Amino acid sequence: MLSVRLEWLAVEVLDELPSDEARAAVQGLLVDVARRPEWWPQPGGEEVAEVFGALCWVSIVAYLDGVEVRDVGWAG
User: Fold this and answer.
1) How far apart (Å, rounded) are the C-alpha atoms in residues 64 and 6?
2) pTM higher than the cut 0.85
3) Are 2 and 63 in contact (CB under 8 A)?
4) Domains of the chain, start order
């Protein structure tokens, strides 16, 4: 089973987003990222990929067992 891990910075930013709508949008993007390994960078944790939603983005690294979310952002 693949996993999605949140780095401490991503957790802090997610907690500090301005609204429930913002948190829901970022969480929805995280679900999309988890379901689409073709969006992931090469496994190994050295390459960072940024995935963008309509008003948010996530920064991820990939490992053989899943992805780690390094940061999230909100532009709304």
Assistant:
1) 16
2) yes
3) no
4) 3-74 (3.30.2310.20)
